[in-house]
Amino acid sequence: MSARAVIDSLEFARSGQQLQGAIAVAQLARLTDSLFDTGGNLKFALSGGLDGEHRPRLNLKVEGAINLRCQRCLDSLAYPVEVESSLLVLTGHAGGETAEFDELDGIPADPHTDVRALVEDEVLLAIPIAPRHAEGQCSAAVKTTRDGTTSPFAVLAKLKQQRIEN
Ligand SMILES: [Zn+2]
Question: Is the full-model pTM beyond 0.85?
């Protein structure tokens, strides 16, 4: 596929079209702030269709691996991306149903929907706001207690207790 895939979201859904491809992580500019590096690709699969209530939907699946920046040690944190979402295509002439639509995961019907932006949105929603290595895998973990706060007193208390037990 070309680097810039543009679809008509409503037509895509109504006619049940499908599109698959890969996007370089480096192309997802809004993701850059959260990333340790911009290497790798994300695979995506987009398929259109109608749901049980005959509403047009886009089903989007994104898979791959990105390197986030650990907020504790600022080192690289490998993060598997596996997102699957069902987006309702909002046609705009819903009238009184607008309030109901607000609560749903939806995108506007747009003949120039940028597939890359859709993928980017889904990945942004999926990644943690403050990513951290798991306990024991973070190089900064030795300085913190289990609940994440630095407390030399807790360490001292533990040492004292161990001495008493011995
Ligand atoms: Zn870390």
Answer: no
